[in-house]
Design goal:
The chain is mainly beta. Helix content is 0%, strand content 47%. It has one domain (5-16, 32-305): Neuraminidase (6 Propeller).
Length: 307
C-alpha cells in the first residue's frame, strides 16, 4: 500500500458559536462553507459551524472503517479490503495497519491480517479487540499472531467496540443488541438502539448512535433501562461513530451526510465541525484534543484538532 501524507495548516471554518442554540425570527445570514477533505460543498444547512484544524491526512488505505489510539504515539487502523461492497463477507482479506499518530504515516501496513471485515476497535488488557463481522477477535499487542476468537450465538453484523475498563462491548447492527465480554467469557447481550452502530463511554455515561434511527442515545451498560434517544434525528442522515469529549460534549460522524458534528447532550444543539466524504468510526485522543476520522469510501484517514 502506498500512503501519501499531507500535513495541513489551520483550516478556517465559519465560527458561529455565539447564540448557536437560540432561535431567531429571521433566517441567519449565509455562512462560508466548512473546509472539506473530498466531499462536495453544499449550501449551508441548519447546523452552525465552528473552527477546526486539520493536522494530517493520509491516503492509500483499503476501506478504513475505524481508528484506535494506541497511546504510545501510534494508532491502529482497520482495513476491510473488500470488493463489490462485500463489507460483511467472510473473505479473510481484512487487516490492521499500525500508523504514526501525528503524521498518519504507515509504520506497519499489515500489523495483523487474516480478518474478514474488521471494523470497530478498542484496547483492553494488553489486547486489541476487533469487531470482525459475526465474531470478535482479541489480538495480543505484544504478538499479533496470538489471538482469541469469540463468536456470540446468533450474531449478525458486529460493528463497533468500546470498553469501560472491565468489560468489552460490541454492537450488533443487524440484531440491535450489544454483546459483552468480561474476563474472557461472553455475557448476555443488552438492548441497544435500532441498528446500533457506534458506541463509547464518557465520564459517567455510555453512548450509542443509530444508523437507521439517525439519533444519539444514552445506553444503560447493564441492560436494565432501555436506550434513551436525545431527539436529534432531524439533524442527521445515518450516524456511524461517536465519542465523548472531556467537557461532556459529543462528537458524531454522519456517514451519508458527509459531516462530523459536535453535539451538546444537555442543550441539544448540533454544530458541524467538518464536511468530508463518508466519515466512519471516530477515535479520540482526549489529552491531545485530536480526532481521527477514517473516510470509508475514499480510503483516507484524517486527523483534526477539535475546536
Amino acid at each position: 500500500m502506498r500512503t501519501s501524507v499531507a500535513v495541513i495548516g489551520l483550516v478556517a471554518l465559519a465560527a458561529l458559536l455565539a447564540g448557536c442554540s437560540q432561535k431567531t425570527e429571521e433566517p441567519p445570514a449565509p455562512r462560508p462553507p466548512v473546509a472539506t477533505t473530498g466531499a462536495p460543498v453544499e449550501e449551508p444547512g441548519e447546523e452552525p459551524t465552528v473552527e477546526a484544524e486539520v493536522l494530517a491526512e493520509a491516503e492509500g488505505f483499503a476501506i478504513p472503517e475505524s481508528v484506535c489510539v494506541a497511546g504510545d504515539g501510534k494508532v491502529f487502523i482497520s482495513n476491510i479490503d473488500a470488493e463489490d461492497e462485500g463489507y460483511w463477507v467472510d473473505d479473510g482479506t481484512g487487516y490492521i495497519t499500525l500508523a504514526d499518530a501525528e503524521t498518519l504515516e504507515v509504520i506497519e501496513e499489515r500489523w495483523a491480517d487474516g480478518f474478514n471485515g474488521p471494523k470497530g476497535l478498542c484496547i483492553l488488557d494488553g489486547r486489541l479487540w476487533v469487531a470482525d463481522n459475526a465474531r470478535i477477535v482479541a489480538v495480543s499487542l505484544d504478538d499479533p499472531a496470538e489471538r482469541e476468537v469469540f463468536e456470540p450465538e446468533g450474531a449478525g453484523q458486529i460493528n463497533d467496540m468500546a470498553t469501560d475498563g472491565e468489560i468489552v462491548y460490541a454492537t450488533d447492527s443487524e440484531k440491535s443488541i450489544i454483546h459483552r465480554i468480561k474476563d474472557g467469557e461472553l455475557m448476555d447481550p443488552i438492548p441497544a438502539p435500532e441498528s446500533v452502530n457506534g458506541i463509547t463511554f464518557g465520564a459517567s455515561q455510555m453512548w450509542g448512535v443509530s444508523w437507521d434511527g439517525h439519533d444519539v442515545y444514552r445506553v444503560d451498560p447493564t441492560g436494565v433501562e432501555p436506550p434513551e434517544a436525545l431527539g436529534l434525528a432531524e439533524h442527521f442522515e445515518s450516524l456511524d461513530g461517536v465519542e465523548e469529549l472531556p467537557d461532556g460534549m459529543l462528537v458524531v460522524s454522519d456517514f451519508p451526510g458527509n459531516k462530523v458534528c459536535l453535539v451538546d447532550p444537555e442543550a441539544l444543539t448540533v454544530e458541524t465541525i467538518a464536511e468530508l466524504e463518508s466519515p466512519a468510526d471516530l477515535s479520540l485522543d482526549g489529552e491531545a484534543g485530536v480526532l481521527y476520522i477514517p473516510q470509508f469510501m475514499v480510503s483516507k484517514v484524517v486527523a483534526i484538532r477539535l475546536p
